[in-house]
Amino acid sequence: MSAAADLDRAVSVAPGVHWIGAFDPDLRNFDIILRTANGTSYNAYAVRGSHGVAIIDTVKLNFSETFFRRLESVADYDEITTIVLNHLEPDHSGALPELLRRAPGASLLVSPQARLMLQGLFDPSALEGRVVFVGSGDSADLGDRQLEFFNTPYLHWPDTQCTWLAAAGVLFSADFLGCHFCDTRLFNDAVGDFRFSFDYYYRHIMRPFRAYVRTALDLIESLPLQIIAPGHGPILRQDPRDYVCRYRALSAPGLHGAGPKTLLVFYISAYGATRRMAEAVAAGAESAASGGEVRVSLYDLEGGHAQPFVDLIEEADALVFGSPTINGDAVKPVWDLLSSLTMVDVKGKIGAAFGSYGWSGEAVPMIEDRLRRLKLRVPLSGVKARLTPTVDDFTACHDLGHQVALHLLGRASPRAIDMASLD
Amino acid sequence: MPRANVTFQDIGVTVTVPAGTRLIEVSEKVGAGITYGCREGECCTCLTRIVSGHEHLAAPSVLESQVLKDNLAPRRHRLACQAQILGGNIVVQPA
């Protein structure tokens, strides 16, 4: 496998546009949460205009030397007027302090959301008087060509943005539309099969932000894209729109997206008590939605793996978890599922908990705390039953399900309470 | 002590609170959908739409104003971890 990029020289991407990034073929784990079977690349670019050179993104700190050698093969430091960081994560900003030092005439263009990240990542004295905040509608003038900016937050940090070079039809998209796939042949029509990596990257990095993905797609889909130049992985010059379409498909709601509200009851049960409570919760939910406006489902966690449940949860509107308390805690299958939910967007869904216990009953409040930390709404107190649930306990479970369903339907009775009663 | 009423529209709950309470102190207790990150007015996770009664909240600090600006927050939006209730009736909704 050989390519011009094997050498420490810049690679032409389009007229006046060069790739000046670095390859990291030995990386096997990225950000703790991703595996990388053949490493990754840190893509950075140089854009030459009649009145200056812009550098778009940098590389991870320990790849700086390669980055600077590639940069020096296409530009002098005193030509650099503009440095754009589309994303400040250290794998893209590691060489920034040194670049600012070597190119003292350059301004640093970042999104407004990057302000606090700049403060947290870099010595403020190195940035003084150098930073310009840009958003959608702003541009940077390179003379005969301009860079335009699209504010595209949460792809996958608050600061992320895309930069558009209309003169060459190149979209510099940062992590958006990227992937961890290291191949020195660099371009999507020359590298090996990276479809798996592209989808895998979406699922592990972008999926929790899929609403933001859709908003960003709305912004860029109408552009006459010739090339998508992401921050990682192959440069997409052949059929770039196919990758945009793929993101559209990956980020689209699943089947029945516009159908009835979905309420999922997950439980696990040692002796059947929590299971019967779960059935009462589900029956209560059904009773609130006899017109079929809420689709109620019951799942035994013992009978499934976490991943398909995560897929279900991504599309659901309300989640109710039932766990017995064992040794002062909810049980492991419940935590396995709850710890997997950072992979999807659960913010704003309704959550609730219930379960039987022997003598202390910590599981229910612990699950409720976790649901709140996952940014769910937890408007109802959970139901705990000591050992064998009583008729009153089942009634409370039925009511819990009923009320959760009413909340989903926007039919919950308004409540007025005094704050003093909440302590 | 002066009191105020805060309605969390997403869960249909109105809470009577003492003046001086911050939205964060009450929204978490009732399980409203306003979510929190840093809780220190920096991350903007708790951005909240003030549906009505905006004038019954203490004016945003310089820091809160800057964070709202950085995050392109629309008008009548506040950080729930910072916004202090002064009185009257306020209706809020997660942004």
CATH superfamily label of the largest domain in chain A:
Ribonuclease Z/Hydroxyacylglutathione hydrolase-like
Number of domains of chain B: 1
Q: Report the helical percentage of chain A.
A: 25-40%
For this structure, what is the CATH class of chain B? Alpha Beta
Explain what this protein looks like in three dimensions:
The complex is a heterodimer of chains A (423) and B (95). With 423 residues, chain A is an alpha/beta fold. Chain A folds into two domains: 4-250, Metallo-beta-lactamase, Chain A, CATH 3.60.15.10; 261-408, Rossmann fold (3-Layer(aba) Sandwich), CATH 3.40.50. In chain A, 30% of the residues lie in helices and 23% in strands. In chain A, β19 (318-322), α11 and β20 form a beta-alpha-beta unit. In chain A, α9 (273-288) crosses α13 (391-409). The longest helix of chain A has 19 residues, at 391-409. The N and C termini of chain A lie far apart (66 Å). The mean pLDDT of chain A is 94. Chain B is of the alpha+beta class and 95 residues long. Chain B has a single domain, classed as Ubiquitin-like (UB roll). Chain B has two helices and five strands. Chain B starts with a strand and ends with a strand. The A-B interface holds A 112-113, 115-116, 133, 135, 151, 153, 158, 347-348, 372, 375-380, 407, 412-419, 422-423 and B 5, 10-18, 21, 26, 28-33, 35, 42-45, 66-67, 69-72, 94. β22 (415-418) of chain A pairs parallel with β2 of chain B, so a sheet runs across the interface.
Tell me the layout of helices and strands:
The complex is a heterodimer of chains A (423) and B (95).
Chain A lengths: L10 E4 L2 E3 L2 E3 L4 E2 L3 E2 L4 E3 L2 E5 L2 E5 L7 H9 L7 E5 L5 H4 L2 H7 L4 E4 L4 H7 L2 H4 L3 E3 L5 E3 L4 E6 L9 E5 L4 E5 L20 H12 L3 H11 L6 E4 L9 H11 L10 E7 L5 H16 L5 E7 L5 H10 L2 E5 L9 H7 L11 E8 L5 H11 L9 E4 L4 H19 L5 E4 L5
Parallel strand pairs in A: 8-9, 9-10, 10-11, 15-16, 17-18, 17-19, 19-20, 20-21
Antiparallel strand pairs in A: 1-2, 2-7, 3-6, 4-5, 7-8, 12-13, 13-14, 14-15
Chain B lengths: L2 E6 L4 E6 L4 H8 L16 E6 L9 H9 L6 E3 L8 E7 L1
Parallel strand pairs in B: 1-5
Antiparallel strand pairs in B: 1-2, 3-4, 3-5
